[in-house]
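Students often ask why inverse folding is considered easier than folding. One informal answer: many sequences map to the same fold, so there is more than one right answer. In these notes we will look at a single instance of the problem. The structure comes first.
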């Protein structure tokens, strides 16, 4: 079905929902109700609180309106007439919109009416309410008028609509699945991380089980970077404002930065980016063209101001660690370097079970710094490199940063949702501002080309994606607890302890559960904690000096010796599976 038609259907459904809401909640004022990627919403200013429990009632009312098959009637009316109409209806938000249209020189506006319900709207819509068949209201949320937290707080209802019953059902199933995988829910259930209002919104606490996963990711990251010719560095978390004046961050990104603190009369800031620090390291020596490319990598923690309304678990936070790197090279090295980074990225992400990517090449925007020649060269080397990789990519025309073109890589999770992760960004701005050079063959100092890149984006966000991708069932190499050893009766307590110790010695993250509880209960607990291997030892196992193994997915017991089991686990972990 045509995308536009679906948008039409969904937007029309939002009118019907608004109609139903105004009937059920008298005094409700209408804000706006657009179609969005997966459905639609409508924002209301209602004297009553609309909760999730009200949705079935609203759906029922909508079904009545749909059944009547009212025509959506379009009318073009003069601005003055529209102002009068919505003033009478006391629709102050619509009035504000009309006044704004008036300022842009519009003489008329369009309204749409079905039955007694009138809405200010450009349209178009489906022919009549009866065209809407398969819809569902999904959730309620808070929103601000015009997204401005200084304006009125509104209530938003999200819904969706499809042309067929099957599509709707499939969508709802996916939504349910996504809910079960919600990293915030699993994060607390599996004891991975927490956020505390007392500490502040958007600031993540990694619990031991989350931290061990982070540690594994970071070790692997460091190992691979060293193999790929990067050098690992550490830089401080605060810096004098001086550096952000030079970099231009104070001027361009001060909205994102936390306010300054006074240190011996000088203003300092917590760092929003690692780039200036890496430049300082590069600049601490003269570099010959022979040394390039120089690749400096850091798991660099930064702090950026995000409005509390957009914070979301691990996905949108105020403090995060970028798996950052800055590459200093010559213009001639750009293309090869780009190829290296791309291959590295894909290989790295595949290890975590991501095999599908969406790649975008974002080109020169209207506002830019640097010379046209540099832009053209950089863009064509990006393009050439992408062609060589053989990976399909889309062009995001004009979507580059003001300081250079970039490649964005989104990963697709099991549910087919795309997540922005890797970014490879060229920069003509900072090398100029900081005068970052190399001595070329001809003895002249020339400006380096700088690439900012991250493979995962931020560790926090990537972890969030990872939790949802695996639904908390981490593969063996990442699982915080890899094995739990369970005894059946008291007589195997010692034997179970012995096995547990052997596993720990073998480098396996093993847990021992010899509590005086029923076997089924212990197995259930291990299953809830999503521990990949459960070792059950009873009298038979003890006598044979063996263990019985069950996995999360396979209840059939497999019998082997501890040494056999250990070598099998080690091989899997080595292969990162
Ligand atoms: Zn409309
Ligand atoms: Zn950077």
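Output (designed amino acids):
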């Amino acid at each position: 079905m045509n995308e536009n038609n679906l948008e039409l259907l969904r937007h029309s459904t939002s009118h019907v929902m608004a109609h139903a809401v105004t009937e059920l909640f008298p005094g409700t004022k209408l804000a706006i109700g657009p179609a969005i990627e997966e459905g639609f919403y409508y924002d209301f200013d209602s004297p009553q609180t609309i909760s999730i429990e009200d949705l079935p009632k609203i759906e029922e009312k909508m079904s009545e309106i749909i059944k009547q098959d009212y025509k959506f009637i379009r009318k073009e009316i003069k601005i003055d007439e529209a102002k009068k109409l919505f003033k009478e209806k006391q629709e102050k938000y619509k009035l504000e919109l009309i006044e704004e249209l008036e300022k842009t020189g519009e003489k008329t506006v369009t309204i749409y009416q079905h039955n007694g319900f009138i809405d200010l709207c450009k349209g178009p819509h489906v022919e009549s309410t009866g065209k809407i068949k398969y819809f569902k209201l999904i959730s309620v949320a808070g929103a601000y008028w015009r997204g401005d937290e200084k304006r009125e707080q509104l209530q938003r209802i999200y819904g969706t609509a499809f042309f067929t019953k099957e599509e709707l059902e499939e969508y709802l199933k996916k939504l349910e699945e996504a809910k079960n995988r919600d990293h915030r829910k699993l994060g607390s259930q599996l004891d991975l991380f927490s956020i505390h209002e007392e500490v502040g919104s958007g600031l993540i606490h990694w619990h031991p089980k989350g931290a061990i996963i982070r540690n594994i990711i970071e070790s692997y990251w460091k190992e691979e970077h060293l193999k790929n010719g990067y050098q690992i560095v550490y830089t401080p978390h605060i810096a004098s404002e001086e550096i952000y004046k030079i970099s231009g961050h104070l001027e361009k990104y001060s909205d994102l930065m936390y306010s300054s603190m006074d240190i011996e009369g000088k203003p300092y800031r917590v760092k929003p980016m690692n780039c200036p620090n890496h430049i300082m390291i590069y600049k601490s020596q003269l570099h010959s063209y022979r040394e390039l490319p120089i690749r400096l990598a850091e798991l660099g923690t930064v702090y950026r101001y995000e409005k509390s309304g957009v914070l979301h678990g691990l996905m949108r936070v105020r403090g995060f660690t970028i798996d950052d790197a800055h590459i200093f090279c010559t213009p001639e090295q750009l293309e090869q370097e780009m190829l290296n980074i791309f291959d590295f990225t894909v290989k790295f992400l595949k290890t975590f079970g991501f095999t599908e990517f969406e790649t975008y090449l974002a080109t020169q925007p209207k506002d830019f710094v640097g010379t046209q020649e540099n832009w053209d060269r950089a863009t064509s080397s990006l393009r050439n490199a992408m062609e060589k990789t053989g990976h399909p990519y889309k062009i995001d025309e004009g979507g580059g940063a003001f300081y250079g073109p970039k490649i964005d890589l989104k990963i697709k999770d099991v549910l087919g949702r795309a997540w922005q992760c890797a970014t490879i960004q060229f920069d003509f701005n900072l090398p100029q501002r900081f005068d970052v050079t190399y001595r070329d063959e001809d003895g002249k100092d020339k400006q380096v080309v700088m690439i900012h890149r991250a493979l995962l984006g931020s560790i926090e966000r990537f972890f969030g994606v990872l939790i949802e991708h695996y639904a908390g069932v981490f593969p063996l190499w990442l699982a915080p607890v890899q094995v739990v050893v369970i005894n059946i009766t008291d007589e195997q307590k010692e034997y179970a302890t012995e096995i547990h110790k052997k596993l720990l010695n073998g480098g396996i993250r093993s847990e021992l559960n010899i509590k005086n509880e029923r076997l089924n209960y212990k197995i259930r607990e291990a299953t809830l904690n999503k521990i990949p291997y459960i070792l059950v030892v009873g009298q038979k196992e003890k006598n044979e000096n063996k263990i019985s193994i069950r996995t999360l997915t396979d209840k059939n017991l497999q019998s082997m010796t501890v040494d056999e089991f250990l070598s099998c686990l080690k091989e899997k972990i080595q292969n990162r599976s």
